[in-house]
Design brief:
Helix content is 65%, strand content 7%. By secondary structure, the protein is mostly helical. It has a two-stranded antiparallel ribbon with strand order 1-2. α1 (2-12) crosses α5 (86-100), α2 (27-39) crosses α3 (45-64) and α2 packs across α5. The longest helix has 20 residues, at 45-64.
């Protein structure tokens, strides 16, 4: 649920003055925002490439398997942003979950 909520917050909306607007950030900007939120640092170029590749693979998978995307998005109590296509949100959720599961998340070296 935490991965989904972060994914939908970063991908879908950003604060603009008093209102909300859809984010038009590039995949690199989105990945960097995830890394900064989770690991307190920007993503390295190789990490951006890998996360972009993972997103692409997961997007294709969830576009073909909409039931799996919807199942992933229903985990937890926090409301799902229905303005984001389920396949995209599910794919970004996997990316965020992957970053959250990096060794660096829990171990400081």
């Amino acid at each position: 649920e935490a991965a989904r909520v972060l994914a939908q917050r970063v991908w879908a909306v950003r604060r603009v003055g008093e209102g909300w607007a859809e984010s038009h950030g590039s995949d690199k900007e989105i990945v960097n925002t995830f890394f900064k939120a989770i690991l307190s640092r920007p993503a390295r170029p190789r990490e951006v490439k890998l996360m972009h590749q993972l997103y692409g693979e997961e997007l294709v998978h969830f576009q073909k398997n909409t039931a799996q995307a919807n199942e992933l998005l229903t985990v937890g109590e926090y409301p799902v942003n229905r303005q984001i296509l389920p396949a995209k949100l599910a794919a970004w959720t996997v990316v965020v979950s992957t970053i959250m599961n990096m060794d660096e998340m829990t171990v400081k070296r």
